[in-house]
Amino acid sequence: MYILENQISLKELLEIAVGALSELTTVSNPDFRLEQAEFIDTKNEWEIVVSFLVENTNKRNNPLLGISMLDFERIYKKLTIDTERHVKGYYFFKN
User: Fold this and answer.
1) Where are the alpha helices (DSSP H) in the chain?
2) SS3 94
3) Domain limits for position 43
4) Could you tell me if 13 and 81 are in contact, meaning their C-beta atoms sit under 8 angstroms apart?
5) What is the rounded CA–CA span in Å between residue 79 and residue 67?
6) Per-residue confidence (pLDDT) for residue 71, from 0 to 100
7) pLDDT by residue (tens digit) across 42-88?
8) Is there a contact between 83 and 6 (Cβ–Cβ < 8 Å)?
9) pLDDT at site 15
10) CB 31 within 8 A of CB 48
11) Is 24 domain-assigned?
């Protein structure tokens, strides 16, 4: 396992994010993924982007075109985590 300079591994960053975001989805297997991780020296914190699956609430079926929307959609959330492993900020934006 690769440990980054402030001693928080990528795996641990993902685990912290999963703990903070898991209540936002009702999907049984939300497939959390660490998409981006950057340590910001001036703030002494990590900025990470995590994606996961949620139920697609905008699902529309169009039988005339033979199009059926997926049951799930992947959403992306940005979090900031300090070196003490506390989530300092959540950033919710539309995909």
Assistant:
1) 10-21
2) coil
3) 10-92
4) yes
5) 35
6) 84
7) 999 999 999 999 988 776 666 665 555 778 889 999 999 999 999 99
8) yes
9) 97
10) no
11) yes
